[in-house]
Amino acid sequence: MPRPHCPRCSRPLERCLCALIPRLDSRTRVLILQHPSEVRHALNTARLAALGLCNAELRVGERFDDLPALLAQPGYRACLLFPGEAAQPLAQLAAENGDSALLLVVPDGTWRKARKLLHLNPQLAALPRVTLPEGLHSRYRLRKAPMPGALSTIEAVVHALDIVEAPARFDALLRPFEALIEGQIAAMGEETFRRNHQRD
């Protein structure tokens, strides 16, 4: 018999994260477009990010027929958080944007799946692209060989909001993410974690 899950955070009830999920206001609107393969992922940080931000929306799919309406938010300038030749640093776009608020569109999936989302949704691919600063490191300590800049979706959103809405900080959004990691380490045992994942 399957274990009961929390209908909000989707975690098993005995490991519900809802008490750790904040409700943070942001001037920036965050639209997360999640590839369906990520929904059942053990972390699913996109869901945690959307739950923790008042001005955020999570959509799941490969093709988004209502994308024009999602992007045409009055008072917002849409941009895509994704690397590319013409991508500019997010801080630069935010400075140029003046008083207008940003609609930050964040694809959620592996690089291959994220590129597929762009391919299937040409209006998404046509958005101006922005990137985070180089050299950021993920707090996800269970990756065998974490690449610099390979952030989880929730980490990317936090870094982006910290840039756009400085001096406001959004670290509280990472509390359930940290708890998830600690839970995974506890489940595998400290010795196994040190042997397989801890770096010198």
Automatic annotation (TrEMBL):
| Keywords linked to the UniProt accession | S-adenosyl-L-methionine, Transferase, tRNA processing
First-tier enzyme category under EC: transferase
Instruction: Name all DTW domain ranges.
Output: 2-189
Q: Which domain of life is it from?
A: Bacteria
- What EC number(s) is this enzyme filed under? 2.5.1.25
Q: Which family does it belong to?
A: Belongs to the TDD superfamily. DTWD2 family.
- Could you identify this protein by its name? tRNA-uridine aminocarboxypropyltransferase
User: Which species is listed as the source?
Assistant: Pseudomonas benzenivorans
